[in-house]
Amino acid sequence: MGLFSFLTQEIAIDLGTANTIIIHNDKIVVDEPSIVALDKNSGKLIAIGEKARQMHGKTHENISTTRPLRDGVIADFHAAEQMIRGMIKMINSKARLMSPSLRIVICIPSGSTEVEMRAVRDSSEHAGGREVFMIYEPMAAMLGIGIDVEAPEGNMVVDIGGGTTEIAVISLGGIVSNKSIRIAGDDFTADIKEYMRHQHNIKIGEKTAEDIKLKVGSALPDLEDPPPDFIVRGPHQMTALPMEIPVSYQEIAHCLDRSITKVEAAILATLEHTPPELYADIYQKGIWLTGGGALLRGLERRLEEKTKIPFQISDDPLHAVARGTGIALKNVDMFQFLMR
Question: How is residue 71 annotated by DSSP?
Answer without folding.
Answer: T
